[in-house]
Amino acid sequence: MLHYNKNSLQAIIMTGLFTALIYLGIFIFRIPIPALVGRPFIHFGNTLAILAVLFLGLRNGALAGIIGLGGFDILNGYALTSWLTMLEIAIVALVVSFLLSVFNYNDSKKNIIIIAIVAGVLKIFTSYCTSIVEALMVGTSFNAAVVASFLSLPATVINSISTAICVPLLYFLLKRIFKIIEKRRN
């Protein structure tokens, strides 16, 4: 985690930077996947949102994820279900932050890999629940919503696998970059 006051100008700038990266991580790098419920696609927004929580802490990281992912949804045709996306990222941010505290903020490779895997699995579960709610919102019966949502999970599974792989790789790369910047600043 970056060490500065969460209300400082630097924290606000980093939160805005992560927000923009999350938005662009979806907007630029998305691959649509056919599904029975919703319009899922493969993207890097979840990976970047988890990195935001790891580097900025729960409040600022969740805020970056909620604004980045939710903002994308609102501006790109998913406004009706953007609240579900925002709820999903809030849940994932809480779990990531909780795990980080359980590990006493020790960001060893093992701990970051565990966090990334748990976040990926959690994202599968939250996306499944979100798909059920989306299907129910358009009038689908509950049983049909459960089945259709299950059959619509391939994009989420791919995103979750990429999250479990990319979070540790990017975390340690960014950590090195932030250390270099910090040394040059001092």
Describe this structure in words.
The protein is mostly helical and 186 residues long. It contains 6 helices and 2 strands; from the N terminus they run αββααααα. It has helices spanning 9-27, 45-75, 82-102, 109-137, 142-151, 154-185; strands spanning 31-32, 41-42. It has a two-stranded antiparallel ribbon with strand order 1-2. Helix 2 (45-75) packs antiparallel against helix 3, helix 3 (82-102) packs antiparallel against helix 4 and helix 4 crosses helix 5. The longest helix has 32 residues, at 154-185. The protein is globular. The two termini are 18 Å apart.
Summarize the structure.
Helices cover 76% and strands 2% of the residues. It has helices spanning 9-27, 45-75, 82-102, 109-137, 142-151, 154-185, and strands at residues 31-32, 41-42. Helix 4 packs across helix 6.
